Amino acid sequence: MTLLGLSPWHLWIILAVVLLTAEIFVSGFVLAGLGFGALTAALGHYLSGELGWALAGYCAGALLFFVAIRPIALRTFMRGDRPRFGVHGMLGKQVTVMDSPALGGGYYTVFRDSRWELESTDDLMDGDLAEVVDVRTSTLIVKRVAR
Q1: Domain count, the chain
Q2: Average pLDDT over residues 109-127
Q3: Does residue 3 sit within a domain?
């Protein structure tokens, strides 16, 4: 059986290349496992010439990838904490406390080009260093770093 002059095992290889290429755009090594299964299906179909062996090779290859190879790849390539973005990326950062020029205006800081109001249970003074411990709407909750 041929389709456009290609044997079925060629189609399995094309499917594998498409899936492995698509893995670049999707995280988690899921499409890579399906691509690996398609490669084993191509091998099974090439050696036997039967669709049954190709499907068995696909199932065995994908199962082998998801049980043995994927956990090792995840441990190797997905190490460490995930990078925190947005306001969650501010936690633990140090800011400089500034006194508001307005009468009774409280304290503020400029962080990433934005002005943030500050709240703290510590006594703050203009020029103190403070560590961000929480973010509530447009207010940073901070604790003073030892002077």
Answers
A1: 2
A2: 86
A3: no
